[in-house]
Amino acid sequence: SGLIGSALCDLLLGRGDEVIAFTRDTEDASCRFPAVAWHAWEPTLERPPAAAFEGVDGVIHLLGEPINQRWTDEAKRKIMETRRAGTHNLVGAIAGLERKPAVLVSQSAVGYYGDRGQEPVDESDGPGTSFDAEVTVAWEAAAREIESAGVRLVIVRTGQVLDPEGGLLGELLLPFKLGLGGPIAGGDQYLSWIHRDDEVGILLWALDTEAVSGVVNASSPQPATNRDFAKALGRALGRPAFLPLPGFALDLKFGREFGDVLRGGQRTIPKRTEELGYEFRYPRLDEALRDLV
């Protein structure tokens, strides 16, 4: 029922699939997506109900407490446990089924690589040491528990999904429309971005393509520095984009720990994604932003 899941449901239903989904709030989700069969699930406390998997051919797992918030001790616990315990409980339910789905597509994030500065990274590179990297390592380890059950696993390390309805782009649109946009914290850090349609496209491609397994990066083959991203968004909106946001403003809003993450970044390359045959609809930032805004 989130940003990615909503777009995914629309495409699945549009191509004639039957969609069964889990949520913590079935009443709200049923009102928003009445064509989806919703089941209640508290991911950190229990396994999802086995009956919901009857006839299911594949599973896409997107659950996780939002990471773009102030990292208090309680927030960090929720960020970690919704991913680690939630994935573990989901995998346990699937492994116990008599008739298992053929594939699990499990979300992860490019935060796995940590802050790498100007260095390009791809799916073969190891993890970083920051909290967001620790979270994704635990998240992926829980997903890999499914491999012993003979289910094909695809782990999708996602960058910043660009969608005007939310996420990074949703937050930036108003100040940029007002001519108040610009680079953040100097602007030299790389942003691994992906158009919403390519994010959902990669999830469906991973679901449908039997030859795809293991880790794939869901980020554009042309990552941009934060400064170049600001300029491109200004061009797309026809507005100036030269007012910088200093790094201390990130600390004021998010706290120092997450502020440090936002001052860093990853220059992520989807090497394996392209080698396995996915063709990006929006590989270039200017085209992606023009389409979205």
Number of continuous helical runs: 11
What is the number of beta strands? 12
Shape, principal axes of CA atoms? globular
Task: Give the low-pLDDT segments.
Answer: none
Name the helix and strand elements from N-terminus to C-terminus, one letter apiece.
Answer: HEHEEHEEHEEHEEHEEHHHEHH
Sheet having the most strands: 4 strands, parallel
Q: What report would you give on this structure?
A:
The chain has 293 residues and is of the alpha/beta class. It contains 11 helices and 12 strands. The chain has helices at 3-14, 26-32, 73-95, 131-143, 167-177, 196-208, 226-237, 247-254, 256-263, 271-275, 285-292; strands at 20-23, 37-40, 58-61, 103-109, 120-121, 152-158, 160-162, 190-191, 193-195, 214-218, 224-225, 267-268. A 4-stranded parallel β-sheet has the order 3-4-6-10, sandwiched between helices. It has a two-stranded parallel ribbon with strand order 1-2. Strands 5-12 form a two-stranded parallel sheet. Helix 3 (73-95) links the parallel strand 3 and strand 4 (103-109). It is globular.
In short:
With 293 residues, the protein is of the alpha/beta class. It has helices at residues 3-14, 26-32, 73-95, 131-143, 167-177, 196-208, 226-237, 247-254, 256-263, 271-275, 285-292, and strands at residues 20-23, 37-40, 58-61, 103-109, 120-121, 152-158, 160-162, 190-191, 193-195, 214-218, 224-225, 267-268.
Outline the secondary-structure elements:
Blueprint (H helix, E strand, L loop, with lengths): L2 H12 L5 E4 L2 H7 L4 E4 L17 E4 L11 H23 L7 E7 L10 E2 L9 H13 L8 E7 L1 E3 L4 H11 L12 E2 L1 E3 H13 L5 E5 L5 E2 H12 L9 H8 L1 H8 L3 E2 L2 H5 L9 H8 L1
Parallel strand pairs: 1-2, 3-4, 4-6, 5-12, 6-10, 7-9
Antiparallel strand pairs: 8-11
